[in-house]
């Protein structure tokens, strides 16, 4: 599939038409209501709880749920690979490794300092799928870009691979180019559900069985 699908999606976005849209769902494993979508080809779900565009929060809660066939899954918070914050994740044993990256060319993205990422309870790996539930602080702006939470046109892109990273224990591991990818238009503001500020995120987390305190 590769980037035929991805480039088609990009073209669709430039034409302001995109079939895929995000919906609100509540993950029964953690009680958090996310705005997200599931790619029906790769069966990966991407969920988000963003602050409103009217406050200064620089963080969000997210989750990625993937079948084990996908050896790494990444998101581009600015909607494209280059000059944007990328969050790449992969399973390792019974945990999930996360790796913020940044690319200025179409080659292996470098590790990127800045974001503080915390794996949250309900992160899990089993025989059929892995799930990464995370808090991403200092994640809405990066060198040369940001998520425009006030925009109805913000885009999110994802890429993944069925080929494992070279050293899954190492967040700085090398890996080969994606085997699939696509774009999704504005999972941030198209929903009825908006989490307005930090207290709302806290409330969501406190609904977790594990009672996470930030
Ligand atoms: C070794 C690692 C990587 C290599 C060599 C690589 C290479 C490339 C290349 C050559 C393209 C242009 C289209 C094509 O030829 O298929 C591309 C596009 C793209 N890549 Fe990567 N990539 C890598 C990692 C990543 C990661 C980690 C992400 C996301 C987290 C990502 C997201 C994208 C996206 C969204 C596009 C679509 C076009 C664009 O955004 O500019 N890539 N990549």
List the helices and strands and how they pair.
Blueprint: H1 2-14, E1 23-26, E2 33-39, E3 44-49, E4 60-67, E5 72-76, E6 86-92, E7 95-102, E8 110-111, E9 116-119, E10 124-125, E11 129-137, E12 141-142, E13 145-146, E14 155-161, E15 180-185, H2 198-206
Antiparallel strand pairs: 1-2, 2-3, 3-4, 4-11, 5-6, 5-14, 6-7, 7-8, 9-11, 10-11, 12-13, 14-15
The chain binds protoporphyrin IX containing FE.
Write a structural description.
The chain is mainly beta. It has one domain (2-206): Cellobiose dehydrogenase, cytochrome domain (Immunoglobulin-like, Sandwich). Helix content is 10%, strand content 37%. It has 2 helices and 15 strands. Strands 1, 2, 3, 4, 9, 10 and 11 form a 7-stranded antiparallel β-sheet that branches. The longest helix has 13 residues, at 2-14. It binds protoporphyrin IX containing FE (HEM). Protoporphyrin IX containing FE (HEM) binds at residues 2-3, 6, 74-76, 80-82, 86, 88, 101, 106-109, 157, 159, 175-178, 181.
Q: What is the helix/strand order?
A: HEEEEEEEEEEEEEEEH
What spatial form do the alpha-carbon principal axes imply?
globular
Q: Which compounds are bound in this model? A: protoporphyrin IX containing FE
Tell me the distance between the termini: 40 Å
Gyration radius, to the nearest Å? Answer: 16 Å
Classified in CATH, the superfamily is Cellobiose dehydrogenase, cytochrome domain
Low-confidence stretches: 7-19, 208-214
Number of helices: 2
- Beta-strand content bin: 35-45%
The average pLDDT is 80
The CATH topology is: Immunoglobulin-like
Helix content: 10-25%
CATH class: Mainly Beta
Q: Main beta sheet: strand number and arrangement?
A: 7 strands, antiparallel
Protein name: CBD9-like protein
Organism: Leucogyrophana mollusca
């Amino acid at each position: 599939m590769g980037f035929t699908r991805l480039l088609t999606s990009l073209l669709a976005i430039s034409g302001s038409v995109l079939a895929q849209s995000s919906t609100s769902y509540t993950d029964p494993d953690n009680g958090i209501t996310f705005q997200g979508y599931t790619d029906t080809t790769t069966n990966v779900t991407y969920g988000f709880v963003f602050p409103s565009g009217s406050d200064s929060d620089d963080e969000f809660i997210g989750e990625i749920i993937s079948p084990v066939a996908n050896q790494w899954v990444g998101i581009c918070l600015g909607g494209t690979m280059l000059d944007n914050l990328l969050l790449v994740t992969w399973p390792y044993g019974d945990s999930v490794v996360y790796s913020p990256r940044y690319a200025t060319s179409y080659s292996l993205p470098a590790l990127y300092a800045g974001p503080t990422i915390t794996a949250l309870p309900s992160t899990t790996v089993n025989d059929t799928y892995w799930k990464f539930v995370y808090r991403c602080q200092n994640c809405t702006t990066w060198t040369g870009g940001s998520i425009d939470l006030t925009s109805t046109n913000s885009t999110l892109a994802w890429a993944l691979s069925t080929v494992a990273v070279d050293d899954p224990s190492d967040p700085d591991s090398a890996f080969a180019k994606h085997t699939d990818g696509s774009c999704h238009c504005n999972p941030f503001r198209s929903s009825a559900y908006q989490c307005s500020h930090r207290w709302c995120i806290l409330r969501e987390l406190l609904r977790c069985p594990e009672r996470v305190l930030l």
